[in-house]
Structures are given as C-alpha cells and as structure tokens.
Amino acid sequence: MRPTKTAPGFLRSYVLPALWLFALPLFGLWFTGHATSSLDGKVLASIEQQIAQDTGLDEQERESTLAFFRANPASEVCLGTDEGLTNFRNNLREVCSDARQFGWMHSLALGLLVLELATTVLVLLCGLAAFVSRPFQYVSFVVGWNVLRVTGALQAIGQGGLVVWLSYWVTALWFNRYSPKLIGVMGVLAAMGIFLVVVGIFRRPPMDFEVEAEVLDESKAPELWAHVRRLCARIQTPPPDHILAGIDANFFVTESDVRVGERTLSGRTLYVSLSLLRLLEQSEADAVLAHEMGHLLGGDTGHGKRLAPMLAHFGHYLQTLHDGGLTRPIYHFMVAYRGLFELSLGRSRRESELAADRLAAGLTSGRDIARSLVKVGAYAGFRARVEAELFSRDEQQQSVAIAQRVALGFADYAQSEAVHGDLHGTVTPHPFDSHPPLSARLENVNARLTPSDMAQVLLEPVTFSWVSTMQEAEAIEARLWGAYEARFSQAHDLVLAYRYVPSNEAERQHVERHFPPLTFEGKEAGLEVRLDFAQVSYTEWEEPVLLEQVTHASKEDRMFKKYLDLQVAGAGRSKQKRSICLSKLKDPDALLGAFAHYLGRSRTMQEHRASSQQAA
CA of 529: how far to CAs of 273, 330, 418, 589, 597, in Å? Predict the structure, then answer.
C-alpha cells in the first residue's frame, strides 16, 4: 500500500473519529463559562434595576455603587475569600450554589481535557516507539495499553458525570425548564457505560485458539517428523512439539495453546495443509517447512504468544467501550492507538516473513520458495473463488463437493488470466502474520517467474508428496472435508432462507423451516399476535401488515403501557402507524425478539432482490 494512500485513509478512519473524545469536555468548558457569564449578567441586571429605582442615592453614589458591582461579578464573589465582600456573598446564597456548580464542572471539563492531551502525547510516543524494534514494540504496547485502560475508565466516569449535569443545566439555562426523563436516561446511560468499562478492565476474554485439524502423531507420519527434526537441526532451533494436519489453505507455526477437538496442545505447534502438500514437490514443501521453522528461530512465535493475550484483552475492552453508548468517543480514541500499533505490528511481521523466506531459500533455493508461493497462492485463490461462487447461488445444492470442484477445475484456472490477478492482487491467508505481496517476496529471494512460468509451475505433475508417506492421510482429509462441507451447506441453507422471496412452494417450505409461523397469546382470551416470514397480524387490526412495508419499528411507553410501534409505508409516499400493546401479551419479550429476527430477514431479502435486479 502506498504511503500517499495510507496517510489520508488512517486520518479519516482513526484520527478524526478519535477527536470526538474532546467534544464533550470542550462543550462543557464553553458551557460552564457561558452559564457563569449568564448568571453574572442576571445578577448584575437585577442589581442595576434596584439601584436605578433607589431614590435615596444621588448620581455620584449611584455611579460608584454600579462601578463596585460591575467590578465584582457575582461568580467571583461566590468563589472568592475576600472578607470585605462577606455581606455581598451572604446575600448571594442561591446564586453561589449555582456558581459553585459551574466552577466544579468547569474544573472537571478542564481536567478531562488535560488528561486527554496528556494521554494523546503518551500514546503517540508509545506508538512511535513500537516502530523502533520488537522489544520496544512489546514494552510500548504494555505501557500504552495499561495507561489507556486506566484513563479510559477515568474518562468514562468524568464524562458520564458531565453529561448528566449538562442534561439538566442546558435545558434549565436556555429554556427555563428541565426534563427529569432526560436526566434519568442520561444517568442510566452514564452508569451503564461506567459499569461496562470497569468490568471490562478486569474481565479476561477466552484465549482458546481452536484449529480444525487432527493431531499427526509420529506413528502416523514418522518420515515427516524425522525430516522436520532434521530441518530444525540445520537451522539450530528446537523442533515442534506437535504437528497438526488439516485442509485449510495455509501453513503456520505457533507457541500459543491450540485447541484441537477436546485436546489443548501447549508448546510449539506446526500446522500443515494436506490439500497443499499434495500440490508441492518435496523440495517445495521443504521450503515451506523451513520458512515456518524460521519463525520459531526468529522468535516471531514467542513474541506473538506474549502479545496475543494483551491484544485479545484490548480487543474485548474496545468492544465494551463500543457497546457502552456514551463511551463511544473513548472507543474511537483507543481504536486510533490500536490502529497506530497495528501499523508497526504489520511492518515487523512483513519483515519477519521476508527474513523467514531468505532463511528457507538458504536451506533449499529461491526457486523452491518461489514455486511454493505460487502454488499456495493459486490454490488459496481458486478455492476462495469456488466457495464464493457456490455461496452466491440462489438454489440449494445437493452436494457442495468443494474439494472435488477445486481438484477438477484447478488446471483450467491455472491457465486463465484470473490466476495472475489473484496471485498479484492478494496475499496468502494466514492467522498470525501479515504477508508481503508476492512480487516483493519473489524479489526478496532473487527469483523471477513470468506468467508462463507460473502456469507451467501450476500444471506440472507432482512426483513426490509428503502426503504419500502419511498413514490415514486420505481418511483424515475425508473426515475434515466432510465436516467442513456440511457446515458450508448449513450456512448456505440459512442464507437462502434470508434471500428467498419465496416464489414457489419449495422455497416457501425452506424459509418456514428457519422462520416458522409463530403465535403469541394475549392475557385476555381471543387476543393474539401472529407472525410469519412475510407478515404480522394482530387481532385489534383490521388486516395484517406486510414486513416489507415496515419502515421503522420501536418500543414505546405510553400511559403506563408498553407498545411496539410500526411505521408502515402505504400507497405513494403515505405512511401509517400500527401499534401492538405489549402489556396485553403473556410474553412480550418473545414477540420483540422474534419480530426483530423476522424483520431482519425481510430486509435482507429486499436488499438481495434489489441487488439481483441491478445485476440482471
């Protein structure tokens, strides 16, 4: 990605939203000054009126008295300690109570701004330090994360209190009235945000890294295990403790705990793709394995293991801030720091990928690295295309047979123009590293491959694959593909239930399997609400309402009863309102949940229908 495109994108996505953190304290700072000036003006106007009406004062006394009160604004007198103004201060009891509030809130808003500026400087320094080296990256993130979660909690408490105070005084000052309901709502939102933030600091997210694979014990693949140990001995790094065999389109190593089925594996784990190993010659597979062992040697996996729990905790904390409502500005500020850190993390990961490629090229050759990269990238690209095409179909599939479709269509794909776009326009999927573009990786190992060379690499038959040395390799693949394709089919069936209009009986039955007709009984006999995938009916209505016509739905309180209000589009631009009295139902929450679910299906169906019509 070019820097000229990265900088504006980072500015729009991270920096500008982060500035919202300053909005409320700045408004609070301005408002408290405005309120104080208004208070002083009202007191002075009242005093001036009294002085003007006092007939016992001559003109000189009147002017000197006015000068005194103009030189001593009420707010300064209330907040001051001058003993000569004690009598004046005692006569301003109610005024002083308000003035003190304005002063306290002014100090709070100013303190929040100072805290925000100090935090900004610190996180910028931490973010920049992360670019220096890997040790600096780790230490800077530890410091930045711990500072941010503390200041985030302080901001949540401070801004929460400020917004509740403003919810009273803004309306009271400008409209001479206040809304207890508004104050109560702001109070609840502030309390909820503070609670979520404080809980989020201490809650530890689950750290299970689950991989769909099978453990490849040494008894099932003795030759591969021996070969991996020899490679590790050559580069002088301890061998992996576990080898996993799967069907994903990638290879990786990790030192984090890995969950496989009911087992949790600790230590060094190597994941190998049986699907990809079938495409790789031994020397090409050696290049891939040496590359992965290079991550172990270079400390990449150990660094990732140390960072992973904190990154996960940070991510969980960000989600808490996002869900907190009033804490959303704090969320955007912390996301900006996370984005800055991710830039440094991405750069160091790309550097480690290139270093691992160079190490592997030294053990095998640049040609083997290049050929393996092309094969892995092409397979990943074609498999993604096959799955995307299957998922986009609007009819049920008797058998998705992804593995078979990929195997049968790979040769034609290898000779098409699409393969070059996929290879040069994407990177290999990988759960731990940010991979550089293919062109940079080929240049890094001094390899050159023309489009015709790449096609030849992809079409050449494999003379030896490590899969042939593994016991039960085909059985493992069959089990994994069977489970994967079954989940794929289930997901596609559910998506079809969201897409169908439906247009025939088969499609209707498919939709109703996921969205069956429901009935919600009322507390009184004969009262009920009926809901299906197409419409909702209520015994107090003259006719049902089509879900397609519902433009807005909300839960409202009126006259001590709860209602589900629907805005329904009629002919032309006309709209009408329909309401369901939730207080009359036995289980109103069940209706609300189901209605939101069914309305979401209807809107998804409408969007898909519109996009299909545009494509046609």
Answer: 52, 42, 53, 13, 15
Residue 441 identity (one-letter amino acid): R
What distance in Å separates the CA atoms of residue 616 and residue 614, rounded to the nearest whole number? 5
**CB-neighbour burial class of residue 47 (10 A; exposed 0-12, middle 13-18, buried 19+):** middle
Dihedral sign computed on CA atoms, order 76, 79, 82, 87: positive
Structure-token pair, residue 458: 């992809």
For residue 41, give the nearest of 9, 69, 15, 20 by alpha carbon: 69
Return the higher-pLDDT residue of 272 and 323: 272
Q: How many CB atoms lie within 10 A of CB 547?
A: 24
Q: Where are the beta strands (DSSP E) in 183-323?
A: 209-210, 214-215, 242-246, 252-254, 258-260, 263-265, 269-273
Chain-centre distance of CA 398, in angstroms? 35
Closest CA to 403 of 478, 495, 315, 322: 478
Q: pLDDT tens across 307-355, in order? A: 888 888 888 888 888 888 888 898 899 988 988 888 888 888 888 899 9
User: Do 231 and 290 form a contact (C-beta atoms < 8 A)?
Assistant: yes
Q: Dig out the tokens for 87 from the structure.
A: 């009598």
Instruction: Find the helix packing angle between 134-175 and 328-363, rounded to 10°.
Output: 160
In terms of DSSP H, where are the helices of 426-555? 438-444, 451-459, 473-499, 505-514
Q: Phi and psi at residue 207, in whole multiples of 5°?
A: -110, 20
| Residue 4 clears pLDDT 50, i.e. is over it | no
Computed from CA positions of residues 270, 275, 276, 278, in that sequence, does the dihedral angle turn out positive or negative? positive
Spatial contact of 576 and 500, defined as CB atoms under 8 Å apart = no
Quick one: residue 401, left, alpha or beta (phi over 0 = left, psi -120 to 50 = alpha)? Answer: left
Residue with tokens 């897409």: 499
Q: Please tell me the chain's helix, strand, coil percentages from 3-state DSSP, rounded to the nearest 5.
A: 65, 10, 25
Greatest distance between any 2 Cα atoms in the chain: 117
* Residue bearing tokens 């034609």: 412
Predicted confidence (pLDDT) per residue in 223-239, tens digit: 999 999 999 999 999 99
Q: Which amino acid appears at position 69 of this protein?
A: F
The pair phi, psi for residue 243, each rounded to 5°, is -125, 130
Q: How far apart are CA 141 and CA 139, in angstroms?
A: 5
First and final C-alpha spacing in the chain: 34
C-beta of residue 326 within 8 angstroms of C-beta of residue 189: yes
Give the length of the chain.
616
Provide the token pair at 394: 């609007």
Strands (E), 501-574: 518-521, 528-531, 535-538, 545-546, 550-558, 561-569
The model carries a pTM of: 0.80
- The model's pLDDT over 159-217, given as tens digits with 9 standing for 90+, comes to 999 999 999 989 888 988 888 888 888 888 888 888 888 777 777 777 678 999 999 99
- Contact call for residues 375 and 458 (beta carbons, < 8 A): yes
pLDDT > 90: percent of the chain: 51
Candidate from 64-73, 285-294, 414-423 with smallest mean pLDDT? 64-73
Q: Say if residues 484 and 247 touch (Cβ distance below 8 Å).
A: yes
**In one letter, which amino acid is 194?**
I
